[in-house]
Amino acid sequence: MKIVMIGAGYVGLVSGVCFSDFGHHVICVEKDQTKLVKLRAGEVPIFEPGLDVLLKRNINEGRLEFSDDLATSIVDADAVFIAVGTPARRGDGFADLTYVYETAKELGEKLTNDTVIITKSTVPVGTNREIKRIITACNPKAAFEIVSNPEFLREGSAIEDFMRPDRVIVGVGSAEAESVMRNIYRPLNIRETPIMVTDLETAETIKYAANAFLAMKITFINEIADLCEKTGGDVQQVAKGIGLDTRIGGKFLHAGPGYGGSCFPKDTLALVQTGQRYGAPQRIIETVVAVNDARKSAMTGKILAACGGSVKGKRIAVLGVTFKPNTDDMRDAPSLVIIPELIAAGASITACDPEGGDEARKLLDGVDWVDDAYSAADGADALVIITEWNAFRGLDLARIRQLLTTSVFIDLRNIYPPEEVSAAGLTLTNVGKGTIES
């Protein structure tokens, strides 16, 4: 099948590359000329493990190409995906649909043949109906079907998620559109991947509900971690104990400095706004958003306490600044709150991140950047792990102790067992593990 992917950002690029690897002929339409030049040369403008290999292979085999000409690209296309950005709107947090609606208008002006238009971008309930209205208003004679096909890609494991998804959600309004979508995803039949067919509004809601629920699990275990610190409990054991209940499951029950990234922050805000707009307040998610926002600053307080109540004049080594490992994404990363607050409190920061340094330099002023954990620790008064990259999971703790001027070791991801840290002569501060004196 001929597929056109409008937008070669994270979702569009991963989806386009993977569809081409399914055997479809894919054209990714991208207006950013700098990005377009890189993509045509086989260069990946984002960090996503394995994406570069698939990109080059499918370009070389003639299934994947890149263009800035929408009108030419969509001629005879079986399916046209909209995969442009929907960032949180300033002021109210609602999804900014400017790019989506501009794309719909452009499609309406340039459609010449019957096709299926599929929204891959994350959009609030009712957006697909509005896309249909815009296209029809621009081109009353256009023959097309509208489909909602939300993505569920985790940064750092997006290829695996696309190739081996838990499910594929397809919101359609006709049997013809459903048939096209089943043909697009036919390669997943061998894995018996469930394809759930719904109406447009249900598919739109599933995306937001899923992300909000996962964000809620993270926020829940972070509050339980606070309780454990007061009572003497161990949040990792609590998480294991409740996660073994198959009704709950163990995923997304890892206490830490709060969620971030491209999805959870904006999608929870958008769901809150949608609930308010329709008179169905999402009180639980409103609390999730508020608690997560406060969580990041609370981690600054934890660092200050570990440093004796003040970091003024002290140098803090920070390991990891991206919102999670295996990505260079800095959007809503806890480090964007923690590091500026430490600097405001009088600290100097030396930081390293395996992939996020280039992007972080644009967002974090006053930080000295180094290439590895040991360089960061050298001469620092305390070390803080914010992101649990593999490079930070097997540190030589005895060497770290020699490099630090004090014994302060702050593990906000609970990577290291307390006994291992203590044996190296370090004083551990972690998350959700309290102590009660007998």
What does this structure look like?
This protein is an alpha/beta fold. The chain folds into 2 domains: 2-198, NAD(P)-binding Rossmann-like Domain (Rossmann fold); 213-429, Rossmann fold (3-Layer(aba) Sandwich). It is built from 17 helices and 14 strands. The protein has helices at 10-21, 33-40, 51-60, 70-73, 98-110, 127-138, 158-163, 175-184, 200-231, 235-243, 264-277, 283-306, 335-344, 357-363, 373-377, 397-403, 418-423, and strands at 2-6, 25-29, 64-67, 79-82, 115-119, 144-148, 168-171, 195-198, 315-319, 348-352, 367-369, 382-385, 408-411, 427-429. The strands form 3 sheets. It has a 6-stranded parallel β-sheet with strand order 3-2-1-4-5-6, sandwiched between helices. Helix 16 links the parallel strand 12 (382-385) and strand 13.
Provide key terms for this protein.
single chain; alpha/beta; Rossmann fold; 2 domains; six-stranded parallel beta sheet; 14 strands
Task: Produce a short descriptive summary.
With 438 residues, the chain is an alpha/beta fold. It has helices spanning 10-21, 33-40, 51-60, 70-73, 98-110, 127-138, 158-163, 175-184, 200-231, 235-243, 264-277, 283-306, 335-344, 357-363, 373-377, 397-403, 418-423; strands at residues 2-6, 25-29, 64-67, 79-82, 115-119, 144-148, 168-171, 195-198, 315-319, 348-352, 367-369, 382-385, 408-411, 427-429.
